[in-house]
Structures are given as C-alpha cells and as structure tokens.
Amino acid sequence: MSEEKPPEPQTPLFWRGFKTLHHFWNRSVLLMFTRVYIQLFVVYIALLSIYWGTYYHRDSRLHRLKFLAIVADDSYPNNEGVPVIGETFKSIIFSPTISSQSGWTLVDSQNFTSVLKPHNNNTYLEELTRQVYQQNYWAGCLVAPNASYDYYQAIVNSQPSVELNSSTVVTCIYQTGRDALTVSYYIEPVVAEISSAMINYASPYILGPLVKQIPQSERSQVVSKVLQNNATAPLLISPFAILLTDLRPNRNASVTGIIYIGLIYVIVITVQLFNFSTVIHAKIVDKVESRSYLYYRLGASQVIYVFLSLAYALVGVAFGISYDAAFGKSGFLVIWAASYLNFSALAGVNEVILPNLVAYDRSYVGYYIVGFLIINVCGITSALAVCPKFYRYSYGLPTYNFQKILVVCIFDTTKRDIGRCFGILVAWAVVTHLVVPFSSKLAIRNTEKLAKMRQ
Q1: 372-427 pLDDT per residue, tens
Q2: Where does a domain end: 246, 264, 285?
Q3: What is the model's pLDDT at position 296?
Q4: Mean pLDDT over residues 44-64, rounded?
Q5: For the segment 355-367, what is each residue's pLDDT rounded down to a tens digit?
Q6: Most buried of 138, 289, 310, 420 (most Cβ within 10 A)?
Q7: What pLDDT, in 10s, does the model give residues 151-195?
Q8: Which domain holds residue 376?
Q9: How deeply is 144 buried, as exposed, middle or buried, from its count of CB atoms within 10 A (0-12, 13-18, 19+)?
Q10: DSSP letter string over 253-317?
Q11: Which of 302, 305, 316, 271 lies closest to 407 in space, CA to CA?
C-alpha cells in the first residue's frame, strides 16, 4: 500500500489577501490614488482656509467697530467744580481694555454741531439715536448735559428729579437687528465692560468728589439727610448702571433661521436645481429647435425660482416672523421679490459654470459646490468690519445683499442701502442669464470634443 501524502498546508487568509492587494496595487493605480488624495487635501485646505481666514487676527481690527460718545457733561457753572461724570466716562472708554475692543469718536457740547451736523436741530439723545439708526456707528453713549452739576444739586438739595438718577446719567444705544451676530459677539461685551467700569468707578471717582464739593461744615448733615430719605438714598448708594436701549431687538429666535441658516440652504438648493433639471432638459432638447429650447430653459427656470422664493417667504410666516416692520403689509411682497432675485442670481451662476465643469470633469463639481458655498457664507456669517479687507468682495454678492433686505423688512433698520441691494441682485440675475446661452454652447462643444478624444 502506498502511503497517503499529508495535505498541503493552506495559505493563511491574510496572506492571500495581501497577495491580491499586491497585484491590485500596481504602479498606475497607486499613482492615481496618490494624485486624487493629494488633490483632495490641497483643494479642501484651500477652500476651508477661505472661511477660517475671516477669523484671522480679528482682535487687531476691532477698532473698525465705530462707537460714538457724546459727553455733554463737559463744563461746570462758573467753573466752581469738575464735571466728574463726564471725565470718568472718558477715562473709561479710552482705557486700554475698552479702546482695544472698539474705535471711539468723542463729541462734546462744543463740537457737537460741527462734527455730527445734527438733523433738524436734534437734541443730544435724538441725534445719537439717529446716528446709530443710520448705521454710522454700531453703538453710541450719551453722558447727559450738566450731569455732574445736576447730580451735585440733587444731593445738596435732597430733591432728585424724575429725569435725573444714577441709572439715566449715561445712556447707551445700539441695535441688534443690524447684525445679531456682530452685536452679540463684539458690541454687547463692550457695553457690558463700560457698565461694569461705571459701577466700580462710581464711589471713588464720582460720588466721592461730588460729596467733597459740599462745604465741610455741612457735609455730614447733607449726607445723613440724603441717606435717611428713601427717595434720595439711591443717589449715594445705587450703582451708576448705564441705561441700555436696543433700537431693534430680536424677539423671535426663528429669525436666525431665515437670516443666516436659511440662506445657506438656498445656496445648496440652487446647486441641486441644476441636477434636478438636467434630466428634464435632456428629454426636451431633442424635441425642439435650439432657439425654442433656449426660451424654454429660461422660462422654466424663472417659474421654479418664483415658487421656491415663495416657499422661502412662507416658511418665515409659518414660524411667526413678521415682515411688516418696514413696509407694512407689502413687506411680504418685498421679501418674495428679493428672494426670487436671489434664487435667480445664484442659480444663474450655477447654470453658467456647472455645465462646463460636467463636460470637462465631473469630479470637479464637488469642489465647486463647497467653494461656492464657502465664498457666499463668509459674508453672511462674519462681521465684515473686523475681517481682512479681502472679504469685502462679499458686498457685491447676491446672498449678502439679500440678507440685508431681509434685515430691513424684519427689523425696520435704515433703508438707505436697499436700492443698491436690489440693484446688485438684478444685475447678477440679468448678467448670468445673458451668459447662459454662450456657456451652454461652450459646454456642448467641450462635450463633443471630449467624446471624440475618447473614441
């Protein structure tokens, strides 16, 4: 009998897998993977750096956030005392802590008219309100006229007026509706710092000097009389809190959706519109002549933009956002029109660029989508005043200008720039759709050329 040969040992599974991969990873495949991953790495580093760049050295540009200080407490009758409230306030806003976070324009009673050129003989408070509303300044503070002298008289006479108390000597005005992100991140912290400093400085730099102006023989009696009266005691014991006035507060959290996040969705939807419509257009193109097809493309696109923009406006209404602050009941129509122009402008850009990208190399479409999104988002989610100057291109983009129209309609901010915003939207919509026919012909030509090269 012949002896049976023992079975040959099987090759371990991992070794067989390694040999398979070894045959798969030939030189050409390895080079292809290397090229693709390096390309992905470089392109996305570049694209993401565009957005991250908006935060680059912001602290060094906070002085671009303009604040107005009207210190009308800059004199004392007969020069018998020092306007300590006004002087203390000036020392606070020009301290390193505050001045490093903001840029201040100081106006007093002497140069008030020459610097601000008040409208219709406005009072100090009226002019401060107008300057902030017109967005010449992000915020403004007013130290009431003759505040130190009036405060001293209120202490001495133990008769504070309704208009004068420790919480109305300094008034600060701003408007959240102008740009909620910028105000919450950069404006409100500065105002809070000033308010805290006024409280801390009240005793040593304001109340102490004012009390010392009282003749020494009467001082203890006057102070005792003030403190014993519940109506006058706050003059000496209440902190100097700043009276804050938000001209355009945000009372509906849903506004964040339509003004910020919703605009990002619009950009993505306009890109998807190109993908959705490509299938439909492919069925139509062979059934009509070229000129009729062009008219069809333009007409069909505008119809869908009208309905999508209507949906965008209606969603805001459904979540309780009021559009009638600036234009009454017509506010809805204004937002619908602006939304339509924004859709038309963004989709027009896609209609010009995407067909040529698809014809050349479909893999570049993903890069374009991310880049298109980031370039538009930089202007609507960043405080452009403190961004590098490069990002001022956002002032000319459709999304940024649509956002400004939304802000006007929802918060009733100044309307001085709304005409320019509509003009930019119209220009983008018209120019891009005028270029679409030429872009489409170029895409067809490139597609045919590449098809011949692959044969």
Answers
A1: 999 999 999 888 989 999 999 999 999 999 999 999 999 999 999 999 999 999 99
A2: 246
A3: 79
A4: 91
A5: 888 877 788 888 8
A6: 138
A7: 888 888 876 654 455 557 899 999 999 999 999 999 999 999 999
A8: 255-454
A9: buried
A10: TTHHIIIIIHHHHHHHHHHHHHHHHHHHHHHHHTTS-HHHHHHHHHHHHHHHHHHHHHHHHHHHH
A11: 316
Mean pLDDT, range 266-292, rounded to an integer: 77
Indicate whether 213 and 301 sit together in one domain.
Answer: no
- H or E segment to which residue 238 belongs: none
Phi, psi of 136 (to 5 degrees): -75, -25
Cα 215 from chain centre: 54
Of residues 282 and 131, the one with the higher pLDDT is 131
* DSSP per-residue letters across 363-391: GGHHHHHHHHHHHHHHHHHS-GGGS-GGG
Examine residue 105 and state whether it is found in any structural domain, yes or no.
yes
Distance of CA 125 to the CA centre of its chain: 27
302 falls within a domain? yes
Burial of 35 (0-12, 13-18, 19+ CB in 10 A): exposed
DSSP single-letter state for residue 414: -
User: Which amino acid is it at 18?
Assistant: F
Residue 165: C-alpha distances to residues 44, 92, 155, 168 (Å) = 58, 20, 11, 6
Domain membership flag for residue 68: yes
233-278: pLDDT as tens digits:
777 887 677 889 999 999 888 898 899 999 999 999 998 888 777 7
Tokens 């452009």 belong to residue? 384
- Please choose, from the candidates 245, 261, 287, the residue with its C-alpha nearest in 3D space to the C-alpha of residue 132: 245
Nearest in space to 270 (alpha carbons), one of 348, 335, 359: 348
Q: Is 138 exposed, middle or buried (0-12, 13-18, 19+ CB in 10 A)?
A: buried
Domains in the chain, number: 2
pLDDT higher than threshold 80 for residue 138: yes
The closest alpha carbon to 337, from 261, 417, 429, belongs to: 429
Q: What whole-number distance in Å separates Cα of residue 361 and Cα of residue 313?
A: 36
State both tokens at 145. 């006229």
Residue found under tokens 């519109």: 273
Considering the domain boundaries, does residue 13 fall inside one?
Answer: no
The predicted structure's pLDDT at residue 162: 44
* Spatial CA neighbour of 323 closest among 261, 254, 422: 254
Mean pLDDT of 322-336: 94
Is 392 in the same domain as 262?
A: yes
Is 231 found in the same domain as 349?
Answer: no
pTM recorded for the entire structure: 0.86
pLDDT at 14 over 60: no
